[in-house]
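Budget justification note: compute hours in this period were largely spent on complex prediction jobs such as the one shown. Inputs:
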Amino acid sequence: MRNMNKNWNIMTGNEAVALATKLAGVRFVSAYPITPQTAIVEKIAEMVANEKMDAKFIEVESEHSAMASVMGSELAGVRSFTASSSHGILYMHEMLNWVAGMRLPILMAVVNRSIGPPWNIWADHSDTMIQRDTGWMQLYGESNQEAMDTIILGYKLAEHKDILLPIMVMQDAFTLSHTSEPVEIRDEMVVREFLGDLNLPFKIDTNRPMGYGSLMPPDGPFMELKMDMKKSMYSAVDRFVEITKEFNDLFDANFPGPVEGFMMEDADYALITLGSISSTAKYVVRNLRNQGKKVGLLRILLYRPFPKDLVISYLRGLKGFGVVDRSSTYGPYGSLYMDVISSIYGKLEIPAANFVAGLGGRDVRVKDFEEMFTKIMEGEEGEIWINVGVK
Amino acid sequence: MMNLVIYLFNFSIWDLGNKMYEIRFHGRGGQGAVTASKILATAAFKEGKWVTSFPFYGTERRGAPVAAFTRIDNNKVELRTQIYSPDTVILLDKSLMNIINVTDGLKENGLILINSRKNDVLNHPELKKFKVAVVDATSIAIRNRLGDPAHPIVNTAILGAYAKISGIVKLESIIEATKDLSPSKINENINAVKQAYDEVEVI
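Corresponding output:
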């Protein structure tokens, strides 16, 4: 039973994101529609047109221009927002690097969708995994509540004076973006107090002209700036823990933070997941626990920066684990698997399998998770594709 | 005292216990199956339940088969898979029985609610294992001028019937959710809900 005293409403993930941008006091939006993100842009445009949201909305001809225009507005010191999916994000790849290198704390909502061809509009993390080295932070949500909360927490983290990096917040296509479920609506006044005003130390000031993103020779501080960016990003893990605690206290919420351990305390075997499939995984963990199997789930919310020390602390003592990648990447193993394995290298020696599942929106079913747990309990390792073969 | 208040509140709604209910809608594009799944979820949500509702997204176009899903539970719904073994199937267009297996995975003795006249589905071999209910939602929709006679919008009528026979959600909640989600013709939709509630038959 839900707590009926709270301000709940039923909404899709896309509606939760649109409403969150209003709560967060976003003042500038530029976006180009693409399935399955379109409803976010439509809802924001409607709120702006009806004067329910005090923001400027600019229509552009492409995602590249959408990212370029929020770069300009953010540089002028205005809290800015865009949203995209799939090929739209590929098209803005160049600008993603510009925004990060210029240390602009822009937030982009992403509805994760596969990359074609073959043409496909369904859930898959390939579109943002491809962008994991652009200097953007990445936060993957599991529910429509998290679709709302990660917008609020995302701005707080990105705009932190010691971080100042852009962030993309993710939800899965259709499974969240077009699914209606209860969401507790955060109080607008409290959100505004929590975030405060954007205070960009290097914003454009016509009385103090500056160059931005200028040429930097090899002996100039190019390398130093790159090192500072990496350090700033990795300081964000601890900041996110603090910010989450503040958020949870203010809103009487239970947002997990950089990672969520589910039934991990005494677990022998665990799966590591990202995004909405984690919910079904928890259902399976609960069922297996009822059968006396000591299993758990480690969910990664903050993927960039990768919270390696937290991951090590949860994995210590396991007899085996599996990492589920929901993306097509072409390293020796999946991206999430390689991040986990490189994090524990030299510290933990545990057999680990890399499952590839759910590409192009293929349903990751209860029996698929049961199969994954069976395989890791039998000590299987290496890359294993789940539920493949045309039927 | 607090316990008593909570007890009274729980008692006033249908008690699902720990069971999650899964409902699958089949219709054709334009009949309102996706909205029906949302109205049902909203109605149960108003009674304090946890709900999810989602369409099966394919290539939507008017007349093509469409499926939509609703899950209802007292506790938070964790499952995010498609629905493979529904407790109930709601069929907005009986002609779909000729082209797809509408009872696929339906639990034995599960409920199938069909927009049909009784005689059109009586003794249908595919329906023997299930509890079958019928309501002529098409006539009710036309009577209330929902859609046009060639393309009646039958979603609100079928939900009135569901409220009567399911024991999962109250008529008043369906009416309130219909008010929230009807883009127009609110009174006509409410009348359709009430008439279907009165006219549905279990066979």
